[in-house]
Amino acid sequence: MDKKGFWQSGHKPTLFSAFLYFDMSFMVWVLIGPLSVIIMKDYPMDPVQKANLVALPVLGGSILRLVFGFLTDYIGPKRTGQLGLLVTTIPLVWGWQFVDSLNDMYIVALLLGVAGASFAAALPLASQWYPKQHQGLAMGIAGAGNSGTVFSTLFANRLAQHYGSWEVVFGLALIPILTVFVLFTIFAKNSPNRPAPKKLSHYAKILSQRDAWLFCILYSVTFGGFVGMSNYLTIFFNAQYDLSAVRAADFTTLCVIAGSFFRPVGGFLSDRIGGVRMLALLYGGACVMFASVSSLPPLAMVIVLLFIGMMCLGAGNGAVFQLVPQRFGNEIGIVTGIVGAAGGLGGYALPLILGSLYQSTGSYTPGFLIIGGIALACLVMLLVVQNSWKRTWSGQGGTAKIDNLGQAS
């Protein structure tokens, strides 16, 4: 086993490039979330239509992650990332210059999914450079690019207010995307240890394995919860606490920071105490936090609860992807695409759950209770499958040994 420390192994320019690509792509992917409160002034929407608008980019990303996962295996993660950055400019130009109706806005929202698909190229690009003992931290650092959400929630509504137009924000977003394209092209390199391309039959083989589906479920809750909340919380704060568009987005930013910057912490701690143990703690924490939010406490308290809840989800993203390379190290490109797609589907479902139940009941209480219950179900599932993982992983090509929610090594 390679005994080098993390900073002595791998390829740092590629790790930085993967982070930067994911970061700016994620910023664009969730751009409509904070802007939705301003957009609905031009195109009035009921709660379900608002939920659909912020959920469509996540749906697009979920579908395209499978495509990007396939491309990552065949043309390499670097070329896939370059392609993703260039195609991302299409919905940005459309949103800037050509939106005339809510239906146009829906199309732009769906096309923004190409930015969300960056996950399926950025994580393999980084992880393929690192040995298994450093996978959690490497993928956590690359995956911390979901911090790009902070730029959208903090600046999108301010820019729209300053320029008197939400459309111009799409145009301004072209600047960082094209800048990152240049930097990514210069600094990113494919790993010499990149696995050989997989055939379509390999996707079917992966999907025939129970563990792949379990990871999909786990990630649909951690990542899906994070991105779904990131997109929807501005609407929640605006509707429930009657905050302005800018102030609602500011409070969303606080919650998003927790989820973004604790992703690498989740990967790092999972390397130390084990991904299964870490996930169990995080799902338990998320359950308590979101169940408490369902009581709709005063604003100060709900921000604290959402901050901790988003922290649990963000760290959970890192913990899931500390386990994935250990179980599916030779199929990381395929599995990243599949599991990432499942995460996107979770992010698509969450706004619809909150928006639909709010429209039908007039309260956010049922929606947050359901989200807390889903986190609890994941905790129970982990407790059930941990012994099975301990018995079978080494026999299926994984290197992990799991001791009752203990360290995976």
TrEMBL record:
Q: How does it sit in the membrane?
A: Multi-pass membrane protein
The record's section on Pfam families has: MFS_1
Q: Which positions fall inside the Major facilitator superfamily (MFS) profile domain?
A: 13-390
What molecular function terms (GO) are annotated for this protein?
A: nitrate transmembrane transporter activity
* Entry's transmembrane regions: 20-39, 51-71, 105-125, 137-156, 168-191, 212-233, 245-262, 274-293, 299-320, 332-358, 364-385
- Write out the GO biological process terms: nitrate assimilation
Main localization (coarse): membrane
* SUPFAM superfamilies with a match to the protein in the record: MFS general substrate transporter
Source taxon at top rank: Bacteria
User: Where in the cell is the protein located?
Assistant: Cell membrane
Keywords associated with the record: Membrane, Nitrate assimilation, Transmembrane, Transmembrane helix, Transport
Record-linked InterPro entries = MFS (IPR011701), MFS_dom (IPR020846), MFS_trans_sf (IPR036259), NO3_transporter (IPR044772)
A cellular component annotation (GO) from this entry? plasma membrane
What family is this?
Answer: Belongs to the major facilitator superfamily. Nitrate/nitrite porter (TC 2.A.1.8) family.
* Name the UniProt record assigns to this protein: NarK/NasA family nitrate transporter
